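Intended use. Records like the one below are meant for learning the mapping from a protein sequence to its folded structure. Do not use them to infer anything beyond what is encoded.
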Amino acid sequence: MKSVASALGCALVALTLSGALAPPAQAQQSSNTIAEIERYRQMLQDGNPAELTSAKGEVLWKTRRGPANASLERCDLGLGPGVVKGAYARLPRHFADTGQVMDFESRLVHCMVSLQGLDRAALVKAPFSSEGQSATDLEALTAYVVEESRGMTIAVPQQHTSEVESYRRGRKIFYFRGGPYDFSCATCHAIDGQRIRLQDLPNLTREEPAQRAFATWPAYRVSQGALRTMQWRLFDCFRQQRFPALNYLSPASVDLITFLGVNANGGKMDSPAIKR
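Structure written out for the chain above:
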């Protein structure tokens, strides 16, 4: 059955990419469906379960842990040690102490290792919660920090040479085609008006949809009952393209997030959001 479903899915994608147009009635129905999904999200937002995950993350952030018996309150996310407000909206960025461009999750792991003395291999071994599990520490900490940037303007920097190079590499990754279906990120996210099943696919090369998409991740996935981070979002996109697994915190993942973040500059963070 899975092979049949995959074949049907490919056929639908092919029809969409070929430019076939839906009849007016079907197009109207599609528009109404998208509007209803958005209304559903807004209704859930007031009681977003991610609030509980964020609260757990705040406790973890301020609790002394690890061999060094230290909290994360001295972690420098780019705005100075201990400054959390608005930090997520300005990541990824270059960090002089590592000589690297880092997204939030890679910077978080760096702080947990360097400040608290925790083992990096153990931290990154299982960063995402499975079905029915509580949020991992990394997910909870991410929820807390991104919540502190809600309403802040996205301002991913492009001043350091390494930041510019990261964006350029991320752009190449976005347009790279490969895998058994000859897909790329751009296959789904560089064309207006596409969707898969009931999910609209934002054109991430255009300002407004790029801002809206980046601003609403991390997000609570209702269908999974879990908060999902940006690193998870890219991991799952690669899985759906049938690409080799995207390693957690890999340079490629950070470069791709940099590309998406710069495209979204000027938008307002609205995360953790609600997704289907």
